[in-house]
Structure formats: structure tokens, C-alpha cells
Amino acid sequence: MVTISTEPTLPAVIRHLFPPFAGLPLGPLLTLSLRSMARRQPRLFDRLGEHRTACYFIDPVDLAFAFTVVPDAERSIVRVVRKSEAATSSVQIRGPILTLLSLLDGTLDGDALFFSRIISISGRTEAVLALRNTIEDAELSPADLLGLRGFPARLADTGILGALSVARQMANRNSRREAPEA
Fold this sequence. Notes:
Oligomer: single chain
Radius of gyration: 16 Å
Structural class: alpha+beta
Number of strands: 5
Shape: globular
Distance between the termini: 27 Å
């Protein structure tokens, strides 16, 4: 596990590439991805138990939009929403986008991020714990989320994880530049 001491956020130039409407196509794409994963790996969704029908509000604080996710296996749905829609969900998870993505790929430890206040969680904590345990046990890669196998899977994992690594390095450099001097 990698630990971080500051809250890396996307550089302003990258944030401007993602205005509120830029996320709209992500909802249907992520919905299809979750439903496809449910067909391939139904036990992941079974592990969520009663919490698979919970509405998770995921707020990447450095983007202009948020997501609501209901991970209900083949009935899963992901929507891109305004940040003001948090009240309609049973769980709210907030943090920088790169940090939230690092939780998915296992690069960062969710407990450490929570206790260092880099991410915040509110609402039904038992639903968050079920989701965290499911994600940790799944050991997901980008190719898993995309439903790829073989050479295309290796290519996607290498490309996406490489791009995320570069983005994290840029964000960490940006955070160090913006950090106040002691």
C-alpha cells in the first residue's frame, strides 16, 4: 500500500477539461460496465448483500460533477449528477478523483485515507464497509471493469494504470507547490 500525506488534486488545467456536462457519457458507460461485471462475477455483488440496493453518492471533489451508484448486479445503475444531489443517497463518499480511483485499484488504503481526512464518508457506514470489503476482495483491474481478457486486457491495464500513475505524479507535484510553507 502507498500512503500519502497531502490531498493530491488534479491540476487546474486538467480540471477545466471536465466541466459538469463532460461527465454525462460516463453514466451509461459505467452502468454497462457494472452490469457486464455482474454477469461475469455475480459473487461480487452477492457479497454486498442488502447493501447492493443502497444509493452511493461518490463526489470527486476536484471535478464539477458527482456520481450516484446503485450496485444492484444486473440492475446496477450509475448516473452523473450535480453535487447538490447528495441528500437523495444513503451513503456519501467524497475525495479527490485520483484518490477515489486509487481505492478501486488497491493502490491506497481506504481506512488510512478516512482517518487522515483525505476522504470523507457519511451516511450508512455499514453499506460503506460492505462496499469496501467487496472491492478489496475483488482485486479489480481496469480490464475487469471493462470486461476485457487476454492481450486487450493487458494493454488496457498497462495504459490505464500508467496514465493514472502519471496523473498522480502531476497531482502530487501540484499539491506540493500549493502547500503552505511551515
